Amino acid sequence: MRVFADGIYDLFHFGHGRSLCQAKQLFANVTLVVAVSSDEDTAKVKGSTVETLEERVETLSHCRWVDEIIPKSPWVLTPEFVKEHRIDYVVHGEDISLDANGNDVYAWLKKEGKFITIRRTSGISTSDIVARLIRDREKYIYRNLGRKYTRQQLNISYPYFAYLKLKEQIWRMFK
């Protein structure tokens, strides 16, 4: 049985891993084909990624559940694509994926009985991780400055860098 899972897989986390595990275990003998959305398609529909397509594909290549990877998968699957890749079932999480016109991209697969919904892992998402990094940005700036990154590498203006250094000195005085 060839089961197909597509996604962005940016900042690969245990939620991604659990979904791929579910897909792999749907049937007794599954070849899990995982497709990665292109940077361009992702930017149009969801916004920019943190990792490049190449980085996301490389990360997936190390996941034990994944048998095949298709880089730059189309956002909307066509019958021709499904036939070309010999896909028996397409899986996706409970969230609805829409095309540019607001239509369910899996509607035709659902009608044909070739779509299976898999459970989403609550409490983790790429958006959650990005929000955490933004919320705690100063902590991570200090972390990387301590690892000898320059303010230029971190894209920090000189006034903000000076502010952080002063804040650090004051914190140390009262510690």
Short description:
With 175 residues, this protein is α/β, with parallel strands linked by helices.
What is the rounded distance between the termini? 61 Å
The best one-word shape is: elongated
Helix content: 40-55%
Structural class: alpha/beta
DSSP strand tally: 5
Walk me through this protein's architecture:
The protein has helices spanning 14-24, 39-45, 53-60, 79-84, 107-111, 126-135, 137-146, 158-173; strands spanning 2-7, 31-37, 68-73, 89-92, 115-117. It is an alpha/beta fold and 175 residues long. A five-stranded parallel beta sheet has the order 3-2-1-4-5. The longest helix has 16 residues, at 158-173. Strand 1 (2-7), helix 1 and strand 2 (31-37) form a beta-alpha-beta unit. The termini are far apart.
SSE order and pairing:
Elements: E1 2-7, H1 14-24, E2 31-37, H2 39-45, H3 53-60, E3 68-73, H4 79-84, E4 89-92, H5 107-111, E5 115-117, H6 126-135, H7 137-146, H8 158-173
Parallel strand pairs: 1-2, 1-4, 2-3, 4-5
Key descriptive features of the protein:
elongated, 8 helices, alpha/beta, 175 residues
